[in-house]
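hey all, quick one before standup. I had two proteins in the batch that finished overnight and I want to keep them in one place so we stop losing track of which output belongs to which input. First protein below, input sequence then structure tokens straight from the run.
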Amino acid sequence: MGAIVEDEDLNEQLLTIAQGFLARHESDAVVDDQVLFCRAVKHLQGIDVPMHLAERLVSHAYGELKSCNDRRRLDIGASSETVAVITDPANGMTWAVPVGLIVRHVINSPSNRKLRLVEP
């Protein structure tokens, strides 16, 4: 199974599988984000993807799914290890956001929901 971690083409295919699963099941009436996340991870595990890789792939796919309608983008070329540069091509605005602020107000926020595999 270690080969999956290093095979970029296979990881891209697995990411596409995760994105497809999330898109198909996003509108299920009884599924909240946490349940959807867990079901997607279990789906990948069902095709022999190790849990740590399945969680990483589903996290990436979930982020893409939730942000696909947002026109703002991270400018990777202008960002650094300590500052995230965000642009809005529609209005030409650019924001430089220190990573410490992101950690403090988003990641460490008490209201932040962390999506992880939850076993029943």
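OK second protein, same deal, sequence then tokens:
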Amino acid sequence: MPENIISHDAVALAQRLVRFSSLNPPGDEKPCIEFLAQLLAGMGFSVETHEFAPGRPSVIARLHGLPGLKPLAFTGHLDVVPVGAAKWTFPPFDGVIVDGLLHGRGACDMKSGVAAFVSAAARLLKTGVSLRRGLVFVLTAGEETGCQGAFDLARRNVLGEAELLVVAEPTSNQPVVAHKGSLRVGVTARGRTAHSSMPLEGESAISKIVAWISRLESHRFEKEHPLLGSMTAVTTTISGGQNINSVPDIARFTADFRTLPDDDHGSILVWLQELFGPEAQLEVITDFSGFATDPDHPAIVPLLAILADGSGAPPTPLGAPYFTDASALVHGFGHVAAVVIGPGHPAQCHKTDEHCPMSEIERANGIYEALMRHLCT
């Protein structure tokens, strides 16, 4: 199918994107992102590319509207996680469609969402309408390994402002108006080595981190968010000791804190130091904030109305425990209102035999096009 035609068919475009093996690691997004950049340029978008590392581009594509009106922004990442060791029913990069499902790595997370908003713009522009409000598409690399592309764009201060940011991650086309952040911390203890037959001559670093982990896991976080619940903390890795017959003089563990949007990560680190004591050496590994947009925010109300018209009932705004590129882009766009909504069920992400229903891709395509018409024309 020619590229000028494939852009108008969300399912066909999603199928084409799945056929790019844009694995991360190692970071093979470039061919897929360049394909979309050329497609968008052919649709009239101005396209700029920024690399956070050699051969790792992210793209900002713009269609300008009238001065004084902030654009409507959509975002999606093109990298996918490895396919794993288990055998797939269908080859993971063939983009096979069977029984109404698009199969392949990235079909759900999240190439179908990207295809749906690119196709929505193509269908809208085909009608010849002029845009009052502009469109901005942000296509990122490196999301699966820490939102690297999105944070790079935010640091460069190249995004500008937006009226609304739509993150096309899979939500079964339900509106997620808040998600948690993540603060990942490494904690190191140091002791004194000795022969294991004379433990009183040494000081076990492992015993120290065992006590610290116990304190952390017995703590109960009381503050609640109406959509997200409370902050959580999980010990994720642990290491220590070099041989079986020595008292270990160094040990380390990592913890992943899933935080609420208004949590101050600096204050959490101060609290951790007090919880563990001065001997604990803390290292911040990643620091991603959450976001929350009021469901009554004027920028989101039109989307909720579109969803209600399509289903015959008002949608229920949701929260999510994971994070997305919104952690970087909400701030990068000047604290823009945001919503995560896209085709595919979140439980399909990263699984063997990942798939996305064609009906959900088409539904997302319709939602996005209706939102573009409402806000931009």
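Flagging for whoever picks this up: The mean pLDDT is 96. DSSP finds ten helices and 16 strands in the chain.
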